[in-house]
Write a structure and sequence with these properties.
Elements lengths: L1 H18 L22 H17 L4 H6 L1 H4 L4 H23 L7 H25 L10 H5 L20 H25 L4 H25 L13 H19 L1 H11 L2 H15 L6 H24 L6 H7 L1 H8 L1 H17 L5 H32 L7
Helix pairs in contact: 2-5, 2-15, 2-16, 5-8, 5-10, 5-13, 6-8, 6-16, 6-17, 8-9, 9-10, 9-13, 10-11, 10-13, 11-13, 12-13, 16-17
């Protein structure tokens, strides 16, 4: 009760200061961080996601994996869905916090440069190096679309002949989501009006997820325009990440909600066992259109279940959270963007050298990818992120 009264008095003070021109939102003192402010397992989840993607592309280089785990390897692109759930959570969270706290939205003049600097410089560097090595090309001469990460929007490019960095299709999804989020947050506020911001956000997230499922169904059973096959089919995973951000934002304003969510997220082992069961079901879907649809939805749920404990109960203990926060694992997550950009090139180059034992190829390719990603992090990405942080907000 005392906390609620304090919050009410604080709101009255803000309104008075605002009306008298003395309240500057950007300079407002941040509230004391609660458990919901700290997420030590997120870098570990990035490490898990990028390792899964690496094995999806590089697992076929290993005779052992081909012989004993081919079905599993073929479904490890679920790592991309983990990245999407994390992006939905981290990118939308500041907007959800602002809405539920009745504060101004994050500044677009700060948001846009941070997002740009996080994605494009490292991507352009990798693109340039791979062009010099002759490892990639640009079908139909559309260099500009690859530089802007819009290559998947323009037919008649096919998924089999995209060119450029093969995994960059997901970066096109990310950039599209970065553009979508501020527009969606603005729309949410306009439509919410005087109604409960929390209820409006929940309904809005439901709309996003439902629209994504429809788009996913259309991409599997129909032939939608290319523009509708970039961001919309990824909205189920991104939307569930947004849902986690809304729940977390509510927990920031209500200690009872924080405790309730912590109880839900605390049994990390249970969530991960459920994810493993769903992954096993995913690996056994047939190749029909219905089977592909089920498989895509299962991927999203697997990713969600893996992320839930690290978001809803980040401060709880347990083997899973300790493993995710282990420094070596967290470091892989820190440099995961570089691994993601470079791993197909490293694996391909090593495969061309027939003298390398095939049993060691996966290990060497992963180690080489980490080494290049580490150099990219310290020499390029981290300095650029420091530049972005000078704009007073963190980069994820």
């Amino acid at each position: 009760m005392a906390w609620e009264v304090s919050e009410a008095m604080n709101r009255i003070r803000k309104v008075w200061l605002w009306k008298h021109g003395a309240f500057v939102p950007e300079m407002e003192t941040a509230p004391e961080p609660t458990q919901s402010d700290r997420f030590p397992g997120l870098d570990g989840l990035r490490a898990l996601a990028v390792t899964a993607v690496f094995l999806y592309h590089g697992g076929l280089l290993s005779p052992e994996l081909r012989a004993h785990a081919l079905s599993v390897v073929f479904h490890l692109d679920t790592g991309v869905q983990i990245f999407f759930v994390l992006s939905g959570f981290l990118i939308y969270r500041p907007f959800a916090l602002a809405h539920l706290s009745d504060r101004p939205r994050p500044s677009i003049r700060e948001y846009a440069p941070r997002r740009f600097l996080r994605i494009y410089p490292a991507y352009w560097f990798a693109l340039g190096v791979l062009v010099l090595f002759g490892s990639i090309d640009f079908p139909q001469g559309r260099v500009w679309s690859y530089l802007t990460l819009t290559q998947t929007y323009f037919p008649p490019l096919s998924w089999q002949r995209l060119g450029g960095i093969s995994v960059a299709w997901s970066l096109a999804v990310e950039v599209s989501f970065y553009l979508f989020v501020p527009l969606w947050a603005f729309t949410q506020r306009k439509l919410a009006g005087r109604r409960s911001a929390f209820a409006a956000e929940l309904v809005g997230v439901g709309v996003v997820v439902a629209a994504g499922i429809v788009a996913l169904w259309a991409s599997i059973f129909g032939h939608p325009p290319a523009a509708l096959e970039v961001l919309p089919p990824a909205l189920p995973a991104l939307g569930l990440g947004m849902l986690l951000s809304v729940l977390n934002a509510r927990a920031q304003r209500d200690r009872r909600w924080e405790a309730r969510l912590a109880r839900i997220g605390r049994p990390a082992g249970g969530w991960w066992i459920a994810a493993a069961v769903l992954f096993a079901v995913q690996c056994n879907q047939d190749s029909s259109s219905q089977g592909k649809m089920r498989e895509q939805l299962l991927r999203v749920l697997v990713a969600l279940f893996l992320v839930v404990p690290a978001v809803l109960a980040p401060g709880a203990g347990g083997v899973v959270r300790r493993a995710l926060a282990w420094p070596a694992v967290a470091f892989i997550g820190t440099v995961s963007y570089g691994i993601y950009l470079w791993h197909t090139f490293v694996g391909g180059e090593l495969y061309e050298h027939g003298w390398i034992p095939r049993d060691l190829l996966v290990v060497l390719a992963y180690s080489g990818s980490v080494a290049i990603a580490t150099a990219s992090w310290y020499l390029l990405e981290r300095p650029i992120m420091r530049l972005a942080r000078r704009r007073r907000a963190p980069v994820h």
